[in-house]
């Protein structure tokens, strides 16, 4: 068999959620179009496709309300499937949205009994995640929001959410678990408005936590796009802050409901720029955590289509990484970017403030008319990117 350079391997660190490839195609307007799959089969199929790991909500594996004995049996079978197929569980999370009790939110709900139940459920789910080997725990506050803001002071919602995350950080420390939290923002859906709507909001919130160093972000392409924002900019800010603990990759068109499409199937240029950033092909520090696809196959697909979808996410990522390496090695691209450096001024700007350096900076002659007239060649740069993407270079 000939070598396929974009065949995914374990080294690529690709992961899928049980809920992603396991999505049976149910939507608000129609019933499932595919059978619900057994989690152990998902592990086997993902392994065959070349994925490295599988992530889960508590309820993706253990049906809500299961007895302790049933739970232990399911976990034992699942661990065996992971071993048999060489798969890991890098991330786990809590389903705080499906059960009707969470209709007014979980950690931010007005009823203290709901908030207490959300903490109980999360502590139990953290134990499950740790037992399966997870080192990242995601918090997606899908129901932490409102339709009518008359129901609570939004400032109080922030305080309640902070209390929950502070509390759970202490729980993890108390147990001595090696676990970090990653907060996932979404602007709306299923609630009319969700608190802490974007990755930027999450970063600001994290700075107010007691155990700030334990908590980072899990940005999602679809969610930042729904807010009309640049995923690449938001991921870059998280990376620069040392806070990109996890990432949800998928495809989305701006202005739509949360589509969770195959990675790279929409806005290929943005997907390319995101992969370029994550891989650090422009010379920046790469992201080395799990590459998680939080997406699902079109509702039109049968079982075979689900695995076409999974392979597609990974193949597109690898193709884009290859394209990004080519782009950043292209001498014309490098020349356009390098034209912006200035051997005399760069050291001055790189130095911290001092009275002497400020004096030198202020004395620097800067020919503003010439600079303002100079074309920056970004049209050419962008076209080079497009031609690279289309395989013309
Ligand atoms: C969504 C979210 C979820 C979360 C998942 C893990 O819009 O439904 O993206 O898929 O990522 O619940 O926390
Ligand atoms: Mn989503
Ligand atoms: Mn997600």
Question: What does it look like?
Answer:
This protein is an alpha/beta fold and 393 residues long. 47% of the residues lie in helices and 9% in strands. The protein folds into two domains: 10-325, TIM Barrel; 331-389, no CATH class. It contains 16 helices and ten strands. It has an eight-stranded parallel sheet. Helix 10 (268-279) links the parallel strand 9 (248-249) and strand 10 (291-293). 37% of the residues are buried. It binds D-gluconic acid and manganese (II) ion (2 copies). The site of one manganese (II) ion (MN) has 5 residues, from loops.
Low-pLDDT runs: none
CATH class of the largest domain: Alpha Beta
At CATH level 3, the topology of the largest domain is TIM Barrel
Tell me the CATH architecture of the largest domain. Alpha-Beta Barrel
- Tell me the CATH superfamily of the largest domain: Divalent-metal-dependent TIM barrel enzymes
Oligomer classification: single chain
Number of DSSP strand runs:
10
Biggest sheet layout = 8 strands, parallel
**Could you state the order of secondary-structure elements as H and E?**
EHHEHHEHEEHEEHEHHEHEHHHHHH
Percentage of β-strand residues: 5-15%
User: Helical residue percent?
Assistant: 40-55%
- Whole-angstrom Rg: 23 Å
Number of domains: 2
Structural class: alpha/beta
Shape: globular
Please report the number of helical segments: 16
Task: Give the names of the bound compounds.
Answer: D-gluconic acid, manganese (II) ion
Please, what is the average pLDDT? 97
Q: How do the strands of the widest beta sheet line up side by side?
A: 8-6-4-3-2-1-10-9
Give the termini separation. 28 Å
